[in-house]
């Protein structure tokens, strides 16, 4: 070793070794993830997706240039993630960071902004430092990315579905969703065929502009889609991977129930969005004061009960609610109107970490019912959405009134926590018609060429006790608004993302949706302790490193001097 150190080629050997190590690292990347939540570790479905790429995927992240700290942090996290993507996808994954419109003429820049908006990327107006000493400039930031594969292009909004009111916590949730958003976008681009999803009609389900966003921007955009009148077919065709049932208002006949039951028994998957009680804003506006919510008589309670849930005959109220215009007084003979939370429009959240609803902004409901899970052998139940800690239920006959909270005593009645409103059911379902199929039903089914089954294969189903959750508001000036958008405040809740996740969970077999379950812990400094020990931490972070460097220099010089003294001796 001493001979090598004394050799004239010593430094050349060191440089060659360093070069070889860097060369090996470029082709065999390795990164140790020491975070408790495995923040920098890709999930197995994502790795499988990226390693199976058969053509280059190009990702252009639109986060570059001077930006506020929050956007810089999001850009850095995106860069870290895509570095891991590139390690898994190798030469078939390429990514860049750009500043949209940089160096373009005004006309070209506006044209580019319009193209990005058509892809679904919403701009955010920010103030950014230009150059040192030159102040700030206002510019648009598109917190998203454009992804291309084999001539197909899509875009993802990195902040979509995340609350814009949560500050650092919201940005942390956005970072937790990065892997899912990028992996899911790549998966969709690679699909040559997409699952068939049906929208069931025949029991008063809306087919108006109220479901424009659901049909055009969720179902048609991502799947093969058909509207299916239930009475037009002898059986629900198995080509439909999933069926969406949205706010039926007419009683289901035994024939219709039997078709739905056998669809489930043969592996079909359903999203039920049910209003058990008749409660509509139109009724309240017509009466000007109050009305009684009554049973719609859908007659599907027995079927849902057999599958593992009961949608109750009640209305859910929550103090954590969406805001609507309310009359708070009068001045000069004119009513004074303010936007106030209305407890019949609760803001729902997920509390158990289920990937479909985790890290989402609140989902707003309108006159929802509560759900109870009931015993059903072989069925696992997971609560997807529930109320806050300050909620209550109003049993039927439930009175709907503008002034549902008038006194302090009324507030004390909101003493229930996390009332379930949406439930996922998984397992082998037992038929409602087990041991009671009529000869006529058996004959008709045989004519249709399908056997009658009394138990399903491993299957999934989602029951949501609110028919309005997937509907969108329609205004005279703007037409159909996005799903979950308040027509007055223009705030968009995460209804669209939640429904989209529900459909995807039912039809996708790759497991990519599981990556939404990542949990990024936000480790913030304790402000109180920081203020109390400010001087101490300043010394530790500034003075101590300098002392250590000086100490190291002194020890090194002393050891060097001592070694040369021994050589001379």
From TrEMBL:
Record field: transmembrane: 9-30, 536-556
Domain DUF7088: 37-148
InterPro entries (alphabetical): ABC_transp_unknown, DUF7088, Motility-assoc_ABC-rel_GldG
Pfam families registered for this protein in UniProt: ABC_transp_aux, DUF7088
Alphabetized UniProt keyword annotations: Membrane, Transmembrane, Transmembrane helix
Source species of the chain: Flavihumibacter solisilvae
Domain of life: Bacteria
Domain ABC-type uncharacterised transport system: 196-502
Protein name (Swiss-Prot/TrEMBL): Gliding motility protein GldG
């Amino acid at each position: 070793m001493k001979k090598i150190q004394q050799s004239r080629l010593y430094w050349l050997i060191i440089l060659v070794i360093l070069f070889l190590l860097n060369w090996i690292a470029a082709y065999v990347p390795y990164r140790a993830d020491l975070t408790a939540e495995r923040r920098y570790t890709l999930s197995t479905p994502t790795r499988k997706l990226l390693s199976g790429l058969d053509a280059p995927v190009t990702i252009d992240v639109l986060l570059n240039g001077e930006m506020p700290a929050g956007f810089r942090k999001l850009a850095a996290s995106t860069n870290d993630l895509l570095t891991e993507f590139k390690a898994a996808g190798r030469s078939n994954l390429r990514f860049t960071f750009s500043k949209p419109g940089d160096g373009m003429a005004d006309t070209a820049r506006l044209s580019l902004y319009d193209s990005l908006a058509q892809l679904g990327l919403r701009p955010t107006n920010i103030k950014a430092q230009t150059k040192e000493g030159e102040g700030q400039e206002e510019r648009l930031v598109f917190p998203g990315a454009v992804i291309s594969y084999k001539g197909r292009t899509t875009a993802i909004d990195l902040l979509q579905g995340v609350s814009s009111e949560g500050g650092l916590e919201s940005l942390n949730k956005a970072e937790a969703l990065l892997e899912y958003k990028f992996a899911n976008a790549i998966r969709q681009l690679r699909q040559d065929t997409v699952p068939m999803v049906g929208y069931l009609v025949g029991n008063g389900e809306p087919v108006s502009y109220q479901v424009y966003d659901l049909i055009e921007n969720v179902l048609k955009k991502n799947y093969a889609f058909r509207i299916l009148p239930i009475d037009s077919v002898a059986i629900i065709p198995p080509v439909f991977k999933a069926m969406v049932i949205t706010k039926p208002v007419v009683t289901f006949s035994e024939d219709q129930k039997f078709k739905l039951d056998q669809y489930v028994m043969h592996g079909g998957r359903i999203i039920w969005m049910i209003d058990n009680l008749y409660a509509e804003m139109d009724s309240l506006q017509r009466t000007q004061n109050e009305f009684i919510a009554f049973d719609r008589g859908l007659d599907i309670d027995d079927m849902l009960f057999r599958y593992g849930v009961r949608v109750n005959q009640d209305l859910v109220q929550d103090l954590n609610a969406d805001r609507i215009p309310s009359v708070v007084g009068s001045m000069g003979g004119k009513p004074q109107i303010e936007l106030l939370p209305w407890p019949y429009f609760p803001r729902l959240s997920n509390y158990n970490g289920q990937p479909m609803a985790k890290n989402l902004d609140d989902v707003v409901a309108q006159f929802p019912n509560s759900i109870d899970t009931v015993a059903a052998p072989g069925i696992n139940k997971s609560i997807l959405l529930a109320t806050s800690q300050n909620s209550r239920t109003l049993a039927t006959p439930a009175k709907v009134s503008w002034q549902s909270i008038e006194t302090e005593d009324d507030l004390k009645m909101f003493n229930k926590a996390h009332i379930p409103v949406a439930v996922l059911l998984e397992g082998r379902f037992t038929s409602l018609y087990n041991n009671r199929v009529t000869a006529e039903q058996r004959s008709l089914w045989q004519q249709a060429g399908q056997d009658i089954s009394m138990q399903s294969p491993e299957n999934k189903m989602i029951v949501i006790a609110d028919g309005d959750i997937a509907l969108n508001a329609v205004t005279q000036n703007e037409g159909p608004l996005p799903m979950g958008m308040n027509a007055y405040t223009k705030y968009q809740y995460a209804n669209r993302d939640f429904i989209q996740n529900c459909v995807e969970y039912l039809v996708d077999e790759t497991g990519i949706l599981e990556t939404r379950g990542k949990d990024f812990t936000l480790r913030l400094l304790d402000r109180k302790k920081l203020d109390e020990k400010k001087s101490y931490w300043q010394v530790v972070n500034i003075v101590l490193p300098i002392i250590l460097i000086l100490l190291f220099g002194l020890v090194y010089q002393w050891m060097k001097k001592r070694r040369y003294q021994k050589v001379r001796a």
